[in-house]
């Protein structure tokens, strides 16, 4: 092959250009830690990484959802736990009332039950993050409203909330109900915390306490024994059911969070495999190319600087 | 004889100088002197030599190689302009991967110094905000986040569409510029061909330098449009055709190239006859003009359509669920979430907008299915759209559809890049062959210079020797 005066410069130019491009790419890889930035560099991997990143962001959102829901469940748990102390005390009073000797003694207990009713009402209208915990989906206004007599004593408590609660998504296609409706008067659907009319439950805490207070005031031991105490026990059982239910929901949320966490780690690993540059390999390649670049410059300089002109 | 020898070697030195002065001219093909033995004269002792004569100044050029280079240059021009157009498309799409900015911490760290916010992030964040709203449907803060993310998403759709539309306009201008340049080159080729024919008339010699310039112009034109050339050996005239239309015939321009706008608004190329003004649409096969047209009407147009389809499907899907829902007040309903999009719209990405009424009052987001303020059914249904496949998008989810579009476009550019690499290798090989054949070598020229110099000196010595001999003869007669 005949070599002309432009053969060396054009070849050197091409080689230096190629080596400089490779160095620039490796420098970007080392600087960003990624093999590619845009689709044209590796379309298949780009598609996969975008899918994985999107899935990862959805998981992060589910984690946030679970965090918020866990807060709500914990607030519900605290309220139900406090409510349990109300029914415990009411049951205790109902048991003890059988041995009361005077009407005055009974009235003293009636005053205490009155306070228990007030406390239960306060718990029924518990707010959490601008919503009422036991208002179902109608949770922007206090769900329970009391009617009082001239002395300010509660004579009835009405439920104005919704009997429906929301399904919350904690993973793709997996939902959980974390809210408890204050009342369920229809006998079907989600079980109410204070009132639940389904057969076998038939709980109505406020009515039980108000009736109990009335019987205490009259020292009607028979009614307390035969009606109020069994009613209070039914209400207690209903509260215990919700205790158990809250525990189960908490467990599901924890499982959901753990699964999201495991999936995140797995997705991160997959995305890393697809897109991350092996730093050691990148640096070794960069070093090799730098050597070739130096060699091309040196040999090119030597060849280009000499011609027959130097000897004539 | 010596005078002719001096003349021959002087011409040799001149050609060496001409070659050396064109050392850095890539269009130049080295020239060389064709020296013949002079006609022998009859003498009693037989034919006697009369020295040397210059029969021609030849150019070392291969027609085959030149035509191959013109063809390959045209393909390179096609791929280079296609690559450039697709690179612009990829930049305008704005979808990059920044793995350091995918977690909340990374996004925070990347604030103001980069990060990743393409359409896919916009879509994901919008549906995630609906997920958050489904957890607390009466939260004003979460409603505002939904609106913020929806506005980001619509702006992103609008921006990507307008950037792709501007790119389309820019590519149309590029096709026009190419054709203006092509017409200039066609005129130059026609003028040079006429000069070559006239210079070589009567067989007095080769118009080598004019041929260099014509070949250079032909290769420049080949970079813009695919072409075929021919030289009539009888009339020594040049013809050039593009996609079957003869533009130059017998050195004269018959037809000019022009552009016109097709039904889809894209600039196309046609040939217009100078006499009849009849225009014939051309189907170009290579060259930069076709490369631009191919990218514009191929991958870029597909990308634009896919993004429009995506915007349409997303807006329609969200609106269908949102309209029957109830706002926070439990009464207001029948509002669209996104406006500007109608069924089957081909400009959804350009027109999609967030309903301004919602922007002014976040409580108007219709997240409830039954009017209860805490009901999340509609919000949850809208959030679930993210994971549902859509028939209008080839049974892919919104994100999958977009990611596929990004990957397809990336694949188109990737293919073009590798085709161009192969093509450049072919170009380099052909140019190396031509350089090897017709390129100037300093070493060779300096060697030739020494040869011509020595021959010139020897011929001059010959003259002085003969002069001395004549002087001696004259001296004899005194």
Task: Give me a quick take on this structure.
Chain A has six helices and nine strands; from the N terminus they run αααβββββββββααα. Chain A is mainly α.
Structural overview:
Chain A has 312 residues and is mainly alpha-helical. Chain A has six helices and nine strands. Chain A has a domain at 52-268: f41 fragment of flagellin, N-terminal domain. Chain A has helices spanning 7-32, 43-96, 103-124, 205-217, 221-275, 279-304, and strands spanning 127-128, 131-132, 144-148, 154-159, 168-171, 174-176, 183-184, 195-196, 203-204. A three-stranded mixed β-sheet of chain A has the order 7-8-9. Chain A has a two-stranded antiparallel sheet with strand order 1-2. The model of chain A has no long low-confidence stretch (mean pLDDT 93). In chain B, the strands form four sheets. In chain B, strands 3-4-5-6 form a four-stranded antiparallel β-sheet, with helices on one face. In chain B, strands 7-8-9 form a three-stranded antiparallel β-sheet, covered by helices on one side. Chain B is of the alpha+beta class and 478 residues long. Chain B is built from twelve helices and eleven strands.
């Amino acid at each position: 092959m005949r070599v002309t005066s432009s053969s060396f410069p054009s070849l050197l130019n091409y080689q230096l250009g190629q080596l400089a491009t490779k160095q620039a790419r490796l420098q970007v890889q080392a600087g960003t830690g990624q093999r590619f930035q845009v689709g044209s560099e590796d379309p298949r991997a780009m598609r996969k990484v975008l899918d994985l990143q999107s899935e990862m962001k959805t998981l992060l959102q589910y984690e946030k959802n679970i965090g918020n829901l866990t807060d709500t469940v914990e607030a519900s748990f605290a309220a139900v736990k406090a409510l349990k102390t109300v029914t415990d005390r009411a049951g205790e009073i109902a048991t003890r009332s059988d041995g009361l000797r005077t009407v005055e003694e009974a009235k003293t207990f009636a005053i205490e039950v009155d306070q228990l009713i007030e406390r239960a009402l306060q718990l029924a209208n518990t707010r959490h993050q601008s919503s009422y915990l036991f208002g179902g989906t109608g949770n922007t206004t206090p769900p329970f409203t009391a009617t009082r007599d001239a002395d300010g004593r509660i004579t009835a408590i009405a439920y104005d909330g919704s009997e429906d609660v929301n399904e919350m998504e904690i993973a793709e296609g997996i939902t959980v109900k974390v809210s408890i409706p204050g009342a369920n008067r229809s006998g079907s659907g989600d079980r109410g915390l204070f009132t639940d009319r389904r057969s076998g439950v038939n709980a109505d805490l406020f009515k039980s306490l108000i009736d109990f207070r009335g019987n205490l005031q009259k020292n009607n031991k028979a009614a307390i024994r035969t009606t109020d105490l069994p009613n209070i026990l039914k209400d207690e059982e209903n509260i215990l059911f919700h205790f158990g239910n809250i525990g189960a929901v908490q467990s599901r949320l924890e499982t959901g969070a753990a699964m999201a966490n495991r999936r995140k780690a797995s997705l991160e690993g997959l995305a890393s495999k697809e897109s991350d540059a092996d730093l050691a390999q990148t640096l070794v390649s960069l070093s090799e190319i730098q050597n070739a670049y130096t060699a091309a410059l040196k040999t090119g300089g030597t060849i280009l600087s000499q011609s027959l002109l130097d000897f004539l | 004889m010596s005078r002719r020898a001096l003349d021959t070697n002087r011409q040799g030195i001149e050609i060496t100088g001409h070659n050396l002065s064109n050392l850095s001219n890539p269009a130049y093909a080295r020239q060389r002197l064709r020296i013949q033995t002079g006609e022998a004269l009859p003498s009693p002792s037989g034919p006697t030599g009369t020295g040397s004569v210059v029969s021609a100044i030849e150019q070392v050029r291969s027609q085959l190689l030149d035509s191959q280079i013109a063809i390959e240059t045209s393909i390179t021009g096609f791929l280079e302009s296609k690559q450039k157009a697709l690179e612009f498309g990829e930049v305008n799409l704005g979808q990059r991967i920044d793995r350091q900015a995918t977690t909340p911490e990374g996004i925070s760290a990347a604030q103001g110094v980069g990060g990743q916010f393409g359409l896919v992030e916009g879509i994901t964040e919008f549906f995630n905000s609906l997920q958050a709203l489904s957890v607390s449907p009466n939260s004003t803060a979460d409603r505002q986040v939904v609106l913020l993310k929806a506005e980001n998403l619509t702006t992103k759709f609008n921006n990507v569409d307008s950037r792709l539309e501007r790119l389309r306009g820019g590519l149309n201008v590029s096709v026009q510029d190419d054709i203006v340049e092509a017409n200039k080159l066609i005129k130059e080729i026609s003028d040079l061909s006429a000069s070559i024919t006239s210079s070589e008339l009567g067989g007095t010699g080769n118009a080598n330098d004019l041929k260099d310039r014509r070949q250079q112009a032909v290769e420049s034109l080949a970079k813009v449009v695919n072409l075929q050339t021919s030289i009539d050996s009888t009339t020594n005239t040049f013809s050039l055709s593009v996609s079957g239309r003869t533009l130059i015939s017998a050195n004269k321009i018959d037809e000019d190239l022009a552009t016109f706008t097709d039904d889809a608004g894209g600039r196309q190329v046609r040939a217009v006859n100078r006499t009849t003004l009849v225009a014939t649409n051309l189907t170009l096969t290579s060259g930069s003009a076709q490369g631009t047209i191919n990218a514009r009407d191929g991958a870029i147009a597909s990308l634009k359509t896919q993004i429009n389809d995506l915007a349409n499907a997303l807006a329609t899907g969200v609106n269908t669920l949102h309209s029957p829902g109830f706002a926070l007040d439990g009464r207001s309903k029948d509002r669209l979430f996104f406006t500007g999009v109608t069924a089957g719209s081909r400009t959804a990405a350009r027109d999609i907008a967030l309903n301004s009424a919602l922007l002014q009052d976040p409580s108007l987001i219709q997240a409830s299915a039954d009017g209860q303020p805490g009901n999340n059914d509609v919000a949850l249904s809208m959030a679930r759209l993210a994971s549902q496949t859509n028939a209008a998008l080839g049974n892919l989810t919104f994100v999958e559809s977009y990611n596929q579009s990004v990957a397809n476009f990336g694949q188109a550019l990737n293919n073009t890049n590798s085709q161009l690499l192969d093509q450049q290798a072919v170009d380099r090989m052909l140019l190396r062959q031509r350089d090897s054949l017709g390129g100037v070598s300093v070493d060779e020229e300096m060697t030739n210079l020494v040869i011509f110099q020595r021959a010139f000196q020897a011929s001059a010595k010959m003259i002085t020797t003969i002069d001395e001999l004549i002087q001696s003869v004259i001296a004899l007669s005194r």
